[in-house]
Amino acid sequence: MASEMHDKGLAKRKSVLGDAYVDNAINNAGPFAADFQAYLTEYCWGSVWTDDTLSDKQRSIMNVCLLAALNRMHEWELHFRGAITNGVSRDELSAIIKHVSCYAGIPVGVECHRIAKKVFAELDAA
User: Fold this and answer.
1) Interval 62-92: pLDDT, tens
2) CA 111, CA 16: separation in Å to the nearest integer?
3) pLDDT for position 21
């Protein structure tokens, strides 16, 4: 049975990452990862992302920085898209990547730009 926090988290997760991505992650988790999907939906998205101390835009900016610094580029792309959904402008994203490059290294900035170019091309074509 889903908790209220899980339900709040699911709604927030879908609003940031999109229904299709979240549904796919949950539906394809399989028996081994199903509990993990429930955990991250309740804890990360329900407890953390629904705390209104920070805006979704602020959280997205932090995620883009943290995930780049940790070199988690698959997740970075996902949260880069989420940052756009949450109102982070292209100019802001460019400045964020520059900032990340200064503190986390130029190779990370190069990879961020490679992914950003791909994402923007997909969004512009849609």
Assistant:
1) 999 999 999 999 999 999 999 999 999 999 9
2) 22
3) 94
CATH number of residue 81's parent domain: 1.20.1290.10
Contact 9, 47 (CB under 8 A): yes
Which DSSP letter does residue 70 get? T
- Residues 69 and 104: beta-carbon distance below 8 Å: yes
Is residue 28 domain-shared with residue 64, that is, in the same domain? Answer: no
First to last CA, the chain: 38
For helices 30-40 and 19-27, give the axis angle rounded to 10 degrees.
Answer: 130
pTM of the model: 0.90
As a whole number of angstroms, the distance between CA 59 and CA 121 comes to 24
Shared domain check, 94 and 67: yes
Q: Which amino acid is at 61?
A: I
Q: Cα(52)–Cα(50) distance, rounded to whole angstroms? A: 6
Token pair in block for residue 114: 């490679």
Over 60: is that where the pLDDT of 1 sits?
no
**Look-up: residue for tokens 């990879």?**
111
Question: Can you give the residue range of the structural domain that contains 108?
Answer: 56-125
